[in-house]
Amino acid sequence: MTRFLAAGVLSLCAIAPAFAGETALHSGKYEGLMLAVTPEHQVEGYYAEELGEGVTRSCAFYLQGKPEALTTWLDEAYPGSVAASSDGVTLTVEKGRQHPGCLSVLMPEIATGLELTQTANTQWIGLVTVSADKAYLLEEPGADAAKRPYIVKDDVVGVLAFKEGWAHVEFTNAKDHTYTGWISQDEYSRLSAPKN
């Protein structure tokens, strides 16, 4: 019995180093970053930060691609990367502060690696931007919109599933209330990085 137990412990110890230090990217909210890991192991993201009260300054941009070689954009496109860290992710965009409004909002560390702590874990497989003026979050595709919550044009929402021209989305408002529902493909746009 002792020999069997010792062998079992040895085999577990031999396996452990393969996983030591390996951290994978996960979908979620990382402070100002919404991040979705797609089924193809690509990432889609939206970074938004606002400073000030009354008169505010804001910085926002999208990101998409392979984690180690992604494209960030709003007006202009700049290369970047995102990597898992012990309690969140490290977002690196050398020219990140050149995105509109970001110079006075975004920390200079964005150029060498900005640490962002995970604030919510999600099951997102992608992100979409609402293109309709108002999109009701339906209980199921084609259901009645009466008395349903809605999202509005330019909201960025996480996608839980795509199904036959519909997206099952999740939206969290400013008060941290989360709503889910189905929206039609004519009410949203998929993220699409500009071609360089």
Verbal overview:
This protein is mostly beta strands and 196 residues long. The chain folds into two domains: 93 residues, no CATH class; 65 residues, SH3 Domains (SH3 type barrels, Roll), CATH 2.30.30. 9% of the residues lie in helices and 46% in strands. It is built from one helix and 15 strands, in the order αβββββββββββββββ. The strands form three sheets. Strands 1-2-3-4-5-6-7-8 form an eight-stranded antiparallel beta barrel. The N terminus is likely disordered.
Identify the notable features of this structure and list them briefly.
single chain; 196 residues; mainly beta; SH3 type barrels; 2 domains; 8-stranded antiparallel barrel; 5-stranded antiparallel beta sheet; 15 strands; globular; disordered N terminus
The biggest sheet, with number of strands, parallel, antiparallel or mixed sense and barrel status, is: 8 strands, antiparallel, barrel
Q: How many beta-strand segments? A: 15
Strand order within the widest beta sheet? 1-2-3-4-5-6-7-8
Radius of gyration: 20 Å
How many helices?
1
Fraction in helix: under 10%
Question: Structural class, judged by helices and strands?
Answer: mainly beta
Number of self-contained structural domains: 2
